[in-house]
Design brief:
Pathway: Protein modification; protein ubiquitination. This is CDC20/Fizzy WD40 domain-containing protein. The protein is mainly beta and about 475 residues long. It is built from three helices and 31 strands. Helix content is about 5%, strand content about 35%.
Protein backbone atom coordinates (compact mmCIF):
# COMPACT_ATOMS: atom_id res chain seq x y z
CA UNK A 1 0.00 0.00 0.00
CA UNK A 2 1.23 3.47 -0.84
CA UNK A 3 1.74 5.70 2.10
CA UNK A 4 -0.62 8.66 2.47
CA UNK A 5 2.28 10.96 1.69
CA UNK A 6 2.94 9.27 -1.61
CA UNK A 7 -0.69 9.34 -2.58
CA UNK A 8 -0.92 13.00 -1.84
CA UNK A 9 2.05 14.25 -3.80
CA UNK A 10 2.48 11.61 -6.49
CA UNK A 11 6.27 11.66 -5.82
CA UNK A 12 8.59 9.04 -4.44
CA UNK A 13 10.70 10.98 -1.97
CA UNK A 14 13.93 9.69 -0.51
CA UNK A 15 13.92 8.84 3.11
CA UNK A 16 14.52 11.85 5.24
CA UNK A 17 12.93 14.26 2.73
CA UNK A 18 9.38 15.40 3.05
CA UNK A 19 7.07 17.36 0.80
CA UNK A 20 8.15 20.69 2.19
CA UNK A 21 11.79 20.01 1.23
CA UNK A 22 10.98 20.56 -2.43
CA UNK A 23 9.73 24.02 -3.30
CA UNK A 24 9.16 25.92 -6.53
CA UNK A 25 9.94 29.56 -6.19
CA UNK A 26 9.42 32.29 -8.76
CA UNK A 27 11.93 35.09 -9.17
CA UNK A 28 11.07 37.84 -11.65
CA UNK A 29 9.18 35.54 -13.94
CA UNK A 30 11.84 32.76 -13.95
CA UNK A 31 11.39 29.30 -12.42
CA UNK A 32 14.09 28.10 -10.07
CA UNK A 33 14.12 24.57 -8.62
CA UNK A 34 15.66 24.58 -5.15
CA UNK A 35 16.35 21.31 -3.48
CA UNK A 36 17.16 21.15 0.19
CA UNK A 37 19.66 18.50 1.08
CA UNK A 38 19.38 19.22 4.76
CA UNK A 39 16.71 18.50 7.19
CA UNK A 40 13.48 20.50 7.08
CA UNK A 41 14.67 22.48 9.98
CA UNK A 42 17.75 23.73 8.17
CA UNK A 43 17.98 27.41 7.28
CA UNK A 44 17.47 28.69 3.72
CA UNK A 45 21.12 29.54 3.39
CA UNK A 46 21.87 25.87 3.06
CA UNK A 47 19.91 25.50 -0.15
CA UNK A 48 21.72 25.33 -3.52
CA UNK A 49 20.61 25.88 -7.09
CA UNK A 50 20.18 22.80 -9.19
CA UNK A 51 19.43 24.40 -12.61
CA UNK A 52 18.09 27.58 -14.16
CA UNK A 53 15.26 27.44 -16.69
CA UNK A 54 14.71 30.85 -18.25
CA UNK A 55 11.31 32.06 -19.24
CA UNK A 56 11.04 33.27 -22.82
CA UNK A 57 9.35 36.42 -21.67
CA UNK A 58 12.23 37.21 -19.33
CA UNK A 59 14.92 36.75 -21.95
CA UNK A 60 16.85 39.79 -23.04
CA UNK A 61 16.18 39.48 -26.77
CA UNK A 62 14.80 43.00 -26.66
CA UNK A 63 18.15 44.19 -25.35
CA UNK A 64 19.87 42.91 -28.48
CA UNK A 65 16.99 44.07 -30.68
CA UNK A 66 16.35 40.56 -31.97
CA UNK A 67 12.65 41.06 -31.39
CA UNK A 68 11.34 44.22 -33.00
CA UNK A 69 9.26 46.36 -30.74
CA UNK A 70 5.85 47.17 -32.11
CA UNK A 71 5.40 50.76 -33.05
CA UNK A 72 9.05 51.69 -32.55
CA UNK A 73 10.79 53.03 -35.64
CA UNK A 74 14.12 51.55 -36.69
CA UNK A 75 17.11 53.30 -35.25
CA UNK A 76 18.69 55.71 -37.64
CA UNK A 77 22.00 54.28 -38.79
CA UNK A 78 21.29 50.88 -37.20
CA UNK A 79 22.65 47.72 -38.77
CA UNK A 80 19.31 46.28 -39.89
CA UNK A 81 20.93 43.94 -42.40
CA UNK A 82 23.03 42.35 -39.66
CA UNK A 83 20.00 41.88 -37.43
CA UNK A 84 18.05 40.22 -40.24
CA UNK A 85 20.94 37.86 -40.94
CA UNK A 86 21.37 36.97 -37.27
CA UNK A 87 17.67 36.28 -36.83
CA UNK A 88 17.53 34.21 -40.00
CA UNK A 89 20.55 32.08 -39.11
CA UNK A 90 19.67 31.52 -35.42
CA UNK A 91 15.90 31.36 -35.36
CA UNK A 92 14.72 30.67 -38.90
CA UNK A 93 13.02 32.85 -41.47
CA UNK A 94 9.73 33.10 -39.62
CA UNK A 95 11.24 34.40 -36.39
CA UNK A 96 10.43 37.95 -37.44
CA UNK A 97 6.71 37.22 -37.01
CA UNK A 98 7.16 36.11 -33.40
CA UNK A 99 6.10 38.47 -30.64
CA UNK A 100 6.51 37.98 -26.92
CA UNK A 101 3.50 36.64 -25.00
CA UNK A 102 0.97 39.15 -23.82
CA UNK A 103 1.79 40.61 -20.48
CA UNK A 104 5.51 40.09 -20.94
CA UNK A 105 5.78 37.62 -18.04
CA UNK A 106 2.82 35.23 -18.09
CA UNK A 107 4.27 31.80 -17.41
CA UNK A 108 1.46 29.86 -18.99
CA UNK A 109 1.16 31.77 -22.30
CA UNK A 110 0.95 29.21 -25.11
CA UNK A 111 3.52 29.12 -27.94
CA UNK A 112 2.69 28.03 -31.45
CA UNK A 113 4.36 24.65 -32.13
CA UNK A 114 6.20 25.98 -35.22
CA UNK A 115 7.85 28.83 -33.30
CA UNK A 116 10.66 26.83 -31.75
CA UNK A 117 13.08 29.55 -30.81
CA UNK A 118 16.15 27.34 -30.46
CA UNK A 119 16.08 25.72 -33.87
CA UNK A 120 18.32 26.26 -36.89
CA UNK A 121 16.49 26.58 -40.15
CA UNK A 122 17.59 27.31 -43.68
CA UNK A 123 15.40 29.84 -45.40
CA UNK A 124 14.42 28.48 -48.80
CA UNK A 125 11.76 31.08 -49.48
CA UNK A 126 12.39 33.01 -52.70
CA UNK A 127 10.90 36.19 -51.32
CA UNK A 128 13.60 37.06 -48.80
CA UNK A 129 15.00 40.52 -49.28
CA UNK A 130 18.06 40.37 -47.05
CA UNK A 131 21.12 41.86 -48.74
CA UNK A 132 23.17 39.22 -46.93
CA UNK A 133 21.76 35.97 -48.24
CA UNK A 134 22.35 32.81 -46.13
CA UNK A 135 23.98 31.37 -49.25
CA UNK A 136 27.16 33.21 -48.34
CA UNK A 137 27.22 31.14 -45.13
CA UNK A 138 27.01 27.89 -47.05
CA UNK A 139 23.23 27.67 -47.52
CA UNK A 140 21.70 28.08 -50.94
CA UNK A 141 18.27 29.61 -50.73
CA UNK A 142 17.97 30.54 -54.39
CA UNK A 143 18.32 34.23 -53.59
CA UNK A 144 20.57 36.23 -55.87
CA UNK A 145 21.39 39.88 -55.58
CA UNK A 146 24.28 42.05 -56.64
CA UNK A 147 24.67 43.17 -53.04
CA UNK A 148 24.96 39.55 -51.81
CA UNK A 149 28.14 39.01 -53.82
CA UNK A 150 31.21 39.82 -51.74
CA UNK A 151 33.48 42.43 -53.30
CA UNK A 152 36.09 40.96 -55.62
CA UNK A 153 39.73 41.21 -54.65
CA UNK A 154 41.72 43.41 -57.03
CA UNK A 155 43.42 41.36 -59.70
CA UNK A 156 47.17 41.21 -59.15
CA UNK A 157 49.30 42.05 -62.17
CA UNK A 158 53.01 41.13 -61.96
CA UNK A 159 55.09 44.28 -61.71
CA UNK A 160 58.08 42.88 -63.58
CA UNK A 161 58.32 41.38 -67.07
CA UNK A 162 58.65 37.61 -67.24
CA UNK A 163 60.97 37.84 -70.23
CA UNK A 164 63.31 40.50 -71.64
CA UNK A 165 64.88 40.27 -75.11
CA UNK A 166 67.63 42.38 -76.57
CA UNK A 167 66.55 44.35 -79.64
CA UNK A 168 69.61 46.13 -81.04
CA UNK A 169 68.89 48.96 -83.49
CA UNK A 170 65.24 49.25 -82.40
CA UNK A 171 64.60 52.86 -83.37
CA UNK A 172 63.46 55.52 -80.92
CA UNK A 173 60.96 57.11 -83.33
CA UNK A 174 57.40 57.90 -82.22
CA UNK A 175 55.97 57.72 -85.76
CA UNK A 176 57.08 54.15 -86.58
CA UNK A 177 55.37 50.83 -85.86
CA UNK A 178 58.02 48.14 -85.64
CA UNK A 179 56.52 45.31 -83.54
CA UNK A 180 53.58 42.96 -84.25
CA UNK A 181 52.50 39.55 -82.87
CA UNK A 182 50.72 37.14 -85.22
CA UNK A 183 47.79 34.83 -84.53
CA UNK A 184 50.27 31.98 -85.18
CA UNK A 185 52.31 33.09 -82.13
CA UNK A 186 55.20 34.61 -84.08
CA UNK A 187 56.59 38.03 -83.15
CA UNK A 188 57.88 40.27 -85.94
CA UNK A 189 60.36 43.05 -85.13
CA UNK A 190 61.92 45.62 -87.43
CA UNK A 191 65.53 46.24 -86.43
CA UNK A 192 67.37 48.68 -88.65
CA UNK A 193 67.33 47.30 -92.18
CA UNK A 194 66.08 43.82 -91.19
CA UNK A 195 62.90 42.13 -90.04
CA UNK A 196 63.30 39.27 -87.57
CA UNK A 197 60.74 36.64 -86.57
CA UNK A 198 60.73 35.24 -83.04
CA UNK A 199 58.65 32.10 -82.51
CA UNK A 200 57.21 32.27 -79.00
CA UNK A 201 56.72 28.52 -78.58
CA UNK A 202 60.41 27.65 -78.94
CA UNK A 203 62.20 31.05 -78.96
CA UNK A 204 63.53 30.38 -82.44
CA UNK A 205 64.79 33.49 -84.27
CA UNK A 206 64.58 33.80 -88.07
CA UNK A 207 65.66 36.67 -90.30
CA UNK A 208 62.79 37.38 -92.65
CA UNK A 209 64.46 39.99 -94.86
CA UNK A 210 67.21 42.58 -95.18
CA UNK A 211 66.36 45.77 -97.09
CA UNK A 212 70.01 46.63 -97.72
CA UNK A 213 72.09 49.67 -96.81
CA UNK A 214 69.91 52.22 -98.64
CA UNK A 215 66.62 51.47 -96.92
CA UNK A 216 65.26 50.65 -93.45
CA UNK A 217 62.15 49.15 -91.89
CA UNK A 218 59.49 51.65 -90.80
CA UNK A 219 56.50 49.36 -90.08
CA UNK A 220 55.43 45.70 -89.84
CA UNK A 221 51.93 44.17 -89.73
CA UNK A 222 50.68 40.56 -89.87
CA UNK A 223 47.49 39.51 -91.60
CA UNK A 224 44.77 38.35 -89.21
CA UNK A 225 45.36 34.74 -90.21
CA UNK A 226 49.06 35.14 -89.43
CA UNK A 227 50.35 33.67 -92.68
CA UNK A 228 51.51 36.85 -94.45
CA UNK A 229 53.32 39.89 -93.12
CA UNK A 230 53.56 43.35 -94.66
CA UNK A 231 56.68 45.49 -94.32
CA UNK A 232 56.73 49.25 -94.81
CA UNK A 233 60.03 50.84 -95.76
CA UNK A 234 61.69 54.21 -95.37
CA UNK A 235 61.66 54.67 -99.16
CA UNK A 236 57.87 54.33 -99.32
CA UNK A 237 57.50 50.72 -100.45
CA UNK A 238 55.09 48.17 -99.03
CA UNK A 239 56.32 44.58 -99.26
CA UNK A 240 54.26 41.47 -98.52
CA UNK A 241 56.06 38.32 -97.34
CA UNK A 242 55.06 34.72 -96.72
CA UNK A 243 55.95 34.37 -93.03
CA UNK A 244 56.21 30.58 -93.14
CA UNK A 245 58.49 30.31 -96.15
CA UNK A 246 60.24 33.69 -95.70
CA UNK A 247 59.50 34.49 -99.31
CA UNK A 248 58.47 37.86 -100.76
CA UNK A 249 55.04 37.73 -102.40
CA UNK A 250 54.47 41.28 -103.61
CA UNK A 251 55.88 44.82 -103.62
CA UNK A 252 53.55 47.83 -103.74
CA UNK A 253 54.56 51.38 -104.59
CA UNK A 254 52.68 54.63 -104.37
CA UNK A 255 54.05 56.50 -101.36
CA UNK A 256 56.57 59.26 -101.91
CA UNK A 257 58.36 58.74 -98.60
CA UNK A 258 58.40 56.41 -95.60
CA UNK A 259 55.45 54.15 -94.84
CA UNK A 260 55.16 54.37 -91.07
CA UNK A 261 51.94 52.46 -90.43
CA UNK A 262 50.06 49.47 -91.91
CA UNK A 263 46.66 47.89 -91.23
CA UNK A 264 45.02 44.75 -92.64
CA UNK A 265 41.37 43.89 -92.81
CA UNK A 266 40.20 40.58 -94.25
CA UNK A 267 41.40 41.35 -97.79
CA UNK A 268 42.63 44.95 -97.96
CA UNK A 269 46.00 46.31 -96.80
CA UNK A 270 45.98 49.99 -95.87
CA UNK A 271 49.19 51.98 -95.60
CA UNK A 272 49.83 55.44 -94.19
CA UNK A 273 52.80 57.55 -95.17
CA UNK A 274 54.74 60.65 -94.43
CA UNK A 275 53.29 62.01 -97.67
CA UNK A 276 49.96 62.38 -95.74
CA UNK A 277 48.24 59.79 -97.95
CA UNK A 278 46.47 56.55 -97.11
CA UNK A 279 46.62 53.89 -99.83
CA UNK A 280 44.45 50.78 -100.16
CA UNK A 281 46.22 47.70 -101.60
CA UNK A 282 44.76 44.40 -102.80
CA UNK A 283 46.90 41.32 -103.47
CA UNK A 284 44.41 40.17 -106.08
CA UNK A 285 44.88 43.31 -108.19
CA UNK A 286 47.96 43.98 -110.27
CA UNK A 287 48.05 47.75 -109.64
CA UNK A 288 49.96 49.27 -106.74
CA UNK A 289 46.78 50.42 -105.02
CA UNK A 290 43.06 50.31 -105.63
CA UNK A 291 42.23 53.64 -103.98
CA UNK A 292 43.87 56.64 -102.37
CA UNK A 293 42.35 58.44 -99.40
CA UNK A 294 43.46 62.02 -99.92
CA UNK A 295 42.45 65.35 -98.47
CA UNK A 296 42.21 63.94 -94.97
CA UNK A 297 45.43 64.48 -93.06
CA UNK A 298 47.63 67.54 -93.34
CA UNK A 299 50.71 65.86 -91.90
CA UNK A 300 52.25 62.38 -91.54
CA UNK A 301 49.87 59.48 -90.96
CA UNK A 302 51.13 57.57 -87.92
CA UNK A 303 48.07 55.66 -86.64
CA UNK A 304 45.86 53.28 -88.64
CA UNK A 305 43.41 50.60 -87.49
CA UNK A 306 40.46 48.74 -89.05
CA UNK A 307 37.40 47.99 -86.94
CA UNK A 308 36.77 44.33 -86.10
CA UNK A 309 33.90 44.10 -88.58
CA UNK A 310 36.03 45.69 -91.36
CA UNK A 311 33.46 48.46 -91.87
CA UNK A 312 35.44 51.44 -90.61
CA UNK A 313 39.06 52.58 -90.77
CA UNK A 314 40.41 54.98 -88.15
CA UNK A 315 43.49 57.06 -88.95
CA UNK A 316 45.55 59.38 -86.80
CA UNK A 317 48.10 61.92 -87.89
CA UNK A 318 50.74 64.37 -86.81
CA UNK A 319 48.16 67.07 -87.56
CA UNK A 320 46.38 66.13 -84.28
CA UNK A 321 43.39 64.77 -86.19
CA UNK A 322 41.55 61.48 -85.78
CA UNK A 323 39.61 60.54 -88.93
CA UNK A 324 37.14 57.72 -89.54
CA UNK A 325 36.54 56.34 -93.03
CA UNK A 326 34.12 53.71 -94.33
CA UNK A 327 34.74 51.05 -96.97
CA UNK A 328 33.44 53.03 -99.92
CA UNK A 329 34.06 56.72 -99.31
CA UNK A 330 37.31 58.46 -100.21
CA UNK A 331 36.44 61.26 -97.80
CA UNK A 332 36.33 60.82 -94.01
CA UNK A 333 32.89 60.33 -92.51
CA UNK A 334 34.12 61.70 -89.16
CA UNK A 335 36.74 64.33 -88.43
CA UNK A 336 37.56 64.43 -84.71
CA UNK A 337 39.81 67.30 -83.70
CA UNK A 338 39.78 67.33 -79.89
CA UNK A 339 43.34 66.01 -79.55
CA UNK A 340 46.04 68.66 -79.22
CA UNK A 341 48.98 66.49 -80.26
CA UNK A 342 49.80 63.71 -82.73
CA UNK A 343 47.42 60.74 -82.70
CA UNK A 344 49.32 57.48 -83.04
CA UNK A 345 47.53 55.28 -80.47
CA UNK A 346 44.25 53.85 -81.83
CA UNK A 347 42.24 50.79 -80.79
CA UNK A 348 38.69 49.50 -81.44
CA UNK A 349 36.72 47.79 -78.71
CA UNK A 350 36.15 44.07 -79.41
CA UNK A 351 33.21 44.13 -76.98
CA UNK A 352 31.09 47.00 -78.30
CA UNK A 353 30.40 48.09 -81.84
CA UNK A 354 31.45 51.61 -82.90
CA UNK A 355 33.52 52.19 -79.74
CA UNK A 356 36.92 53.69 -80.53
CA UNK A 357 39.75 54.82 -78.24
CA UNK A 358 42.59 57.14 -79.22
CA UNK A 359 45.59 58.63 -77.47
CA UNK A 360 47.40 61.92 -77.96
CA UNK A 361 51.05 62.88 -77.85
CA UNK A 362 53.09 64.94 -75.40
CA UNK A 363 51.02 68.13 -75.58
CA UNK A 364 47.75 66.20 -75.19
CA UNK A 365 48.40 63.14 -72.95
CA UNK A 366 44.74 62.13 -73.09
CA UNK A 367 42.97 58.89 -73.90
CA UNK A 368 39.64 59.74 -75.55
CA UNK A 369 36.69 57.46 -76.26
CA UNK A 370 34.35 57.92 -79.20
CA UNK A 371 31.05 56.62 -80.46
CA UNK A 372 31.71 56.50 -84.19
CA UNK A 373 28.01 55.99 -84.92
CA UNK A 374 27.32 59.62 -84.04
CA UNK A 375 30.78 61.15 -83.54
CA UNK A 376 30.25 61.93 -79.86
CA UNK A 377 33.16 61.91 -77.42
CA UNK A 378 32.21 59.60 -74.55
CA UNK A 379 35.05 60.26 -72.13
CA UNK A 380 38.51 61.75 -71.81
CA UNK A 381 41.25 60.77 -69.34
CA UNK A 382 44.45 62.76 -68.79
CA UNK A 383 47.16 60.14 -68.31
CA UNK A 384 49.93 62.60 -67.48
CA UNK A 385 52.24 61.27 -70.21
CA UNK A 386 52.56 61.00 -73.97
CA UNK A 387 50.30 58.18 -75.18
CA UNK A 388 52.24 55.98 -77.60
CA UNK A 389 50.02 52.90 -77.98
CA UNK A 390 46.63 51.51 -77.01
CA UNK A 391 45.34 47.93 -77.12
CA UNK A 392 41.97 46.60 -75.99
CA UNK A 393 41.86 43.20 -74.28
CA UNK A 394 39.69 40.63 -76.03
CA UNK A 395 39.34 38.59 -72.81
CA UNK A 396 38.00 41.29 -70.48
CA UNK A 397 36.74 44.84 -70.90
CA UNK A 398 40.10 46.44 -70.14
CA UNK A 399 42.76 48.18 -72.17
CA UNK A 400 46.48 48.83 -71.90
CA UNK A 401 48.33 52.00 -72.80
CA UNK A 402 52.04 52.66 -73.18
CA UNK A 403 53.60 56.02 -72.56
CA UNK A 404 56.58 58.21 -73.34
CA UNK A 405 57.46 61.61 -71.92
CA UNK A 406 57.84 61.70 -69.10
CA UNK A 407 56.93 58.53 -67.19
CA UNK A 408 57.82 55.82 -69.77
CA UNK A 409 55.28 53.52 -68.12
CA UNK A 410 52.66 50.93 -69.07
CA UNK A 411 49.16 51.28 -67.64
CA UNK A 412 46.22 48.85 -67.49
CA UNK A 413 42.73 50.34 -67.22
CA UNK A 414 39.22 49.04 -66.58
CA UNK A 415 36.53 50.26 -68.95
CA UNK A 416 34.26 52.19 -68.64
CA UNK A 417 35.29 53.28 -65.12
CA UNK A 418 38.90 53.88 -66.25
CA UNK A 419 40.12 52.75 -62.85
CA UNK A 420 43.80 51.84 -62.91
CA UNK A 421 44.46 48.12 -62.62
CA UNK A 422 48.26 48.37 -62.76
CA UNK A 423 51.13 50.70 -63.57
CA UNK A 424 54.27 48.96 -64.85
CA UNK A 425 57.74 50.44 -65.23
CA UNK A 426 61.02 49.08 -66.50
CA UNK A 427 61.83 50.76 -69.80
CA UNK A 428 64.32 53.61 -69.57
CA UNK A 429 63.03 55.34 -72.72
CA UNK A 430 59.63 55.92 -74.34
CA UNK A 431 57.53 52.75 -74.69
CA UNK A 432 56.91 53.26 -78.42
CA UNK A 433 55.86 49.75 -79.49
CA UNK A 434 53.16 47.37 -78.29
CA UNK A 435 51.74 44.02 -79.42
CA UNK A 436 49.51 41.39 -77.82
CA UNK A 437 49.84 37.61 -77.77
CA UNK A 438 47.21 35.53 -79.60
CA UNK A 439 45.71 34.28 -76.31
CA UNK A 440 45.24 37.87 -75.16
CA UNK A 441 47.07 37.43 -71.84
CA UNK A 442 50.56 38.74 -72.60
CA UNK A 443 51.78 41.97 -74.13
CA UNK A 444 55.21 42.78 -75.48
CA UNK A 445 56.55 46.32 -75.34
CA UNK A 446 59.52 47.85 -77.13
CA UNK A 447 61.47 51.04 -76.55
CA UNK A 448 64.48 52.96 -77.69
CA UNK A 449 66.41 51.31 -74.87
CA UNK A 450 66.67 48.42 -77.35
CA UNK A 451 64.77 45.89 -75.26
CA UNK A 452 61.55 43.93 -75.72
CA UNK A 453 59.74 43.18 -72.46
CA UNK A 454 56.95 40.61 -72.01
CA UNK A 455 54.29 41.28 -69.38
CA UNK A 456 51.37 39.16 -68.16
CA UNK A 457 48.64 41.77 -67.77
CA UNK A 458 45.28 40.21 -68.71
CA UNK A 459 43.43 37.11 -67.46
CA UNK A 460 42.61 34.17 -69.67
CA UNK A 461 39.50 34.00 -71.78
CA UNK A 462 36.39 33.56 -69.64
CA UNK A 463 33.24 31.64 -70.36
CA UNK A 464 30.88 33.50 -72.71
CA UNK A 465 28.85 36.16 -70.94
CA UNK A 466 26.06 38.43 -72.03
CA UNK A 467 26.81 41.77 -73.64
CA UNK A 468 25.35 43.58 -70.61
CA UNK A 469 27.74 41.79 -68.23
CA UNK A 470 30.67 42.50 -70.53
CA UNK A 471 29.98 46.22 -70.66
CA UNK A 472 29.55 46.50 -66.89
CA UNK A 473 33.01 45.09 -66.15
Amino acid sequence: MDSPQTRKTGLNLPSGMNETSLRLETFSGSFRAISSLSSPSSSRSSTCSDRFIPCRSSSRLHTFELIEKKGSPAKEGGNEAYNRLLKSELFGADFGTFSSPAGGGAQGSPMSPNKNILRFKTDHSPGTNSPYSPSILGHDNGFSSESSTPPKMPRKVPKTPHKVLDAPSLQDDFYLNLVDWSSQNVLAVGLGTCVYLWTASNSKVTKLCDLGPNDSVSSVQWTREGSFISVGTNLGQVQVWDGMQCKKVRTFGGHQTRTGVLAWNSRILSSGGRDRNILQHDLRVSSDFISKLVGGHKSEVCGLKWSHDDRELASGGNDNQLLVWNQHSQQPILRLTEHTAAVKAITWSPHQSSLLASGGGTADRCIRFWNTANGHQLNSIDTGSQVCNLAWSKNVNELVSTHGYSQNQIMVWKYPSMAKVATLTGHSLRVLYLAMSPDGQTIVTGAGDETLRFWNVFPSMRAPVSMEETLMR
